[in-house]
Design goal:
transport; copper transport
């Protein structure tokens, strides 16, 4: 300390670091464990297995819902009537926005680099595709004119 009562050459730690002993650093590689921050600061929390399982279930069902939206046909009959094509187009656009928004939320959850989150996201998408997108439960033939409400999510 100098004569003025100040510490020379040392800066005070930020106030947020002195009060939060369980503040976690963001991982930049995959890791296993329940102590992760997924989507929100401090969620699911430190050493809360139940909240971690809830977070995994949320990511799983979000991925499953994205696959349902990608393969649903609820507007097909309304679109074929040609009476309200603008209304159907607006509903398709809204469904597209919801699907893309949810897909980005799943992507952001995976960016927590928690291996459990990664695995449940893949499981949700895979099981969703199996039930809603594959031919396992659909009795359609190629070229029957039945299509989904939304265009496919393509990588290319």
């Amino acid at each position: 300390m100098d004569g003025g009562g100040h510490m020379s050459g040392m800066a005070a730690p930020p106030s947020n670091m002195t009060h939060n002993h369980h503040h976690m650093m963001m991982h930049m590689t995959f890791f296993w464990g329940k102590n992760a921050e997924i989507l929100f600061d401090g969620w699911p929390g430190h050493d809360h297995l139940g909240m971690y399982i809830l977070a995994l279930a949320l990511v799983f069902f979000l991925a499953l819902f994205v696959e349902w939206l990608s393969n649903c046909n609820v507007l097909r009959d309304a679109a074929s009537s040609h009476h309200r094509s603008t209304a159907v187009g607006l509903l398709q656009t809204l469904m597209y926005a919801v699907r893309i928004g949810l897909a980005y939320i799943v992507m952001l959850a995976v960016m927590s680099f928690n291996a459990g989150v990664f695995l449940v996201a893949i499981a949700g998408h895979s099981i969703g595709f199996f039930f809603f997108g594959s031919r396992a439960f659909h009795k359609t033939t190629p070229g029957d004119g039945k299509s989904t409400d939304l265009p496919a999510m393509n990588c290319c």
